[in-house]
Amino acid sequence: EAGVAQSPRYKIIEKRQSVAFWCNPISGHATLYWYQQILGQGPKLLIQFQNNGVVDDSQLPKDRFSAERLKGVDSTLKIQPAKLEDSAVYLCASSLASGGGQPQHFGDGTRLSIL
Amino acid sequence: GNSVTQMEGPVTLSEEAFLTINCTYTATGYPSLFWYVQYPGEGLQLLLKATKADDKGSNKGFEATYRKETTSFHLEKGSVQVSDSAVYFCALSEGQAGTALIFGKGTTLSVSS
Description:
Helix content of chain B: under 10%
Oligomer: heterodimer
Low-confidence stretches of chain B: none
Radius of gyration of chain A: 13 Å
Helix content of chain A: under 10%
Distance between the termini of chain B: 41 Å
Mean pLDDT of chain B: 92
Radius of gyration of chain B: 14 Å
Order of helices and strands of chain A: EEEEEEEEEEE
Shape of chain A: globular
Number of helices of chain B: 0
Low-confidence stretches of chain A: none
Shape of chain B: globular
Distance between the termini of chain A: 37 Å
Structural class of chain B: mainly beta
Structural class of chain A: mainly beta
């Protein structure tokens, strides 16, 4: 089974620029998550989708971050404009359902550096 | 709110030593508990999980027991190998729809031969 695919692997931009990340979850996985992992910390949820609907975006900085999951499959996460504090690894994960015992499968992440 | 606390790293061990990485949690309900591992240059992988009190998760020689009375889920391995060098994350999920994983800060394990 193919894993969660993310692109790009690395991105370097200047502050105030915009950037977008792409995620393709495991086939058949209804639930998709975006996490932000700052160096030295554990991942923190940004947004959770169930099919193409948003379940939880309470920790998403909506003044600069946006995400969508059209057709309930692929997803994109956008930052506009970027700040220095957005330097982090952005992880996408998917699971079959959103129940608490469901394991989440992670992509390799996109490492974002803001200059 | 819900949270996970892991022991600070790095943990440095010799090959075949015994490993314990402590993890405690705070949750309002009855969470599921997980250990994820991140090998150098790779993504997060599920190592093991437990979904109710007294359950023991195990995989690749690693074990962790869900202790509700002490709100703990400590990771153990009897004999570590160099290939176990990685960052280990303890995490919980509340078990309700719409609740994602809450992670600890991670513990770096370095095993030398």
